[in-house]
């Protein structure tokens, strides 16, 4: 009846279900934790240059591909997103626009991984885009883009959740003025 | 220990194994994903995902968003890759998108990976048809079991021997 094997089995089974109940409770608690994130991105300038290679030296084969270079400013306070189930935040600034061939386009301009609550207040000035800003059609004529700040909360255990700030005003891309070095 | 007992035990073990397999497949149908659980094998998404973490995938109908983490296969290569979407361009046709991905821990985007095979040398984007799942949830460490089992086949043998013992000795 109450053999050693039975007792060991019962202890194992109970501790495994207890651990998974606790993990489930932690995972779901993250969904209802109150937070008040705030953020904004603005562009100080956009310059369009032509070139053959992007920032990662990917070859676009011809010389007239239009790359945009932007200068951004970012203000954000995401510290309220850090709770007991936040392992890290991934914060990324996104340019969004539409063209006749592609109604919705989004390109990440800059990103950052935040691991501590004390680093979650962001204030950047004169920030240049980290990734190449080039359209799928490789031209920027008549395009207006807005920028916004997005974030992804990576949990210790549980659900991946996402959020974003209000989009900025729409900025027009100028004509190409120069050749990329 | 008679034959009847051994047969009952084997039946119980088989019931458990098939039960797990059936619920896994049913879950795959529900999430629209062939393998709704994957174990992370590389360090390219550190510090979000480490080697041995388990990811829960699904494949909803809605378009893939920027910043989402996708599991995709490059045409001609078998090993699936888990990386974050950093560019998306949607066509007017529903479900038509082109995507660019990058690992959080890598310095450059994935175009080098896409173009590694000669047949893909002009490949600039991946498409939703290359995406096998989108990461929805995360459970750390537990996938280390499967990594240990593929790294040390002896462990797999021991586990099977344990199951055998249960079949023949449990009363």
UniProtKB/TrEMBL annotation, chain A:
It is a single-pass type II membrane protein. Keywords: Endoplasmic reticulum, Membrane, Signal-anchor, Transmembrane, Transmembrane helix. It holds the Pfam family SPC22. The keyword Membrane applies. The keyword Hydrolase does not apply. One of its GO terms (biological process) is signal peptide processing. One of its GO terms (cellular component) is signal peptidase complex. Its main location: endoplasmic reticulum. It is found in: Endoplasmic reticulum membrane. Essential component of the signal peptidase complex (SPC) which catalyzes the cleavage of N-terminal signal sequences from nascent proteins as they are translocated into the lumen of the endoplasmic reticulum. Essential for the SPC catalytic activity, possibly by stabilizing and positioning the active center of the complex close to the lumenal surface. Essential for viability. Belongs to the SPCS3 family. This is Signal peptidase subunit 3.
From TrEMBL, chain B:
The chain crosses the membrane at residues 6-24, 154-170. It is found in: Endoplasmic reticulum membrane. The lineage of its organism: Eukaryota, Fungi, Fungi incertae sedis, Mucoromycota, Mortierellomycotina. GO terms for biological process: signal peptide processing. One of its GO terms (cellular component) is signal peptidase complex. Belongs to the peptidase S26B family. Keywords: Endoplasmic reticulum, Hydrolase, Membrane, Protease, Signal-anchor, Transmembrane, Transmembrane helix. Its EC number is 3.4.21.89. Catalytic component of the signal peptidase complex (SPC) which catalyzes the cleavage of N-terminal signal sequences from nascent proteins as they are translocated into the lumen of the endoplasmic reticulum. Specifically cleaves N-terminal signal peptides that contain a hydrophobic alpha-helix (h-region) shorter than 18-20 amino acids. PANTHER family: SIGNAL PEPTIDASE COMPLEX CATALYTIC SUBUNIT SEC11. InterPro entries: LexA/Signal_pep-like_sf, Pept_S26A_signal_pept_1_CS, Pept_S26A_signal_pept_1_Ser-AS, Peptidase_S24_S26A/B/C, Peptidase_S26, Peptidase_S26B. Component of the signal peptidase complex (SPC) composed of a catalytic subunit SEC11 and three accessory subunits SPC1, SPC2 and SPC3. The complex induces a local thinning of the ER membrane which is used to measure the length of the signal peptide (SP) h-region of protein substrates. This ensures the selectivity of the complex towards h-regions shorter than 18-20 amino acids. SPC associates with the translocon complex. Residues 36-88 form the Peptidase S24/S26A/S26B/S26C domain. It is an enzyme of class 3 (hydrolase). It catalyses: Cleavage of hydrophobic, N-terminal signal or leader sequences from secreted and periplasmic proteins. It comes from Mortierella alpina. PROSITE patterns: SPASE_I_1 (PS00501), SPASE_I_3 (PS00761). GO terms for molecular function: serine-type endopeptidase activity; signal peptidase activity. This is Signal peptidase complex catalytic subunit SEC11. It is a single-pass type II membrane protein. It comes from the Eukaryota.
